[in-house]
Amino acid sequence: MTDESDNKPHDRRQMFRLGLKKLMVPIANYIEDRFNVPLAGIRTVLRPPGALSEKDFLETCYRCGNCIDVCPARAIRVISSEDMDQTGTPYIDPDLAACVVCEELACMKACPSGALKSVDDPNQIEMGCARVERESCIRSRGENCRLCVEKCPMGTSAIDVDEEGEIAVKQDGCVGCGTCQFFCPTTPKSILLDPY
Looking at the domain assignment, is residue 12 inside a domain? Predict the structure, then answer.
């Protein structure tokens, strides 16, 4: 017979984890039921160009590392996580290196599983979309910073300075490569990528 006290936490960290789990599981279940979106389908990291929806990506990706090997910008990294669904999958951290939307679209062509779907035109890439934190942007202090505009591989079809002199992201043109976030000189960053 198992003593019930064996299942009780013996230190603060374990007690905190148990309490957090008891709190989060009902919330996660509510979100899945209410919005009919499995949490595995919510994208929380920036995937390489051409990535399928998160659920399909996780089911399809071989975790072979081909996309990592061929990336000319060395922007694609591998997730190391306790979450077995996520571990070994490729992602991009725009604070460390950004996708440069290379001409050859190398990662998509190197993907053997179809987790990264090839496109003919770089404008068809939909990794995410940038958003500007105007309060911390250098331009809000009257400085003429245009790094995010000048470095964007998609050009002014994705980002530009608007009539008010503020940085404006054009949702239809932004592919979510992360270059603007990478080159933003503020800490914390004044332009951030939201993955699709």
Answer: no
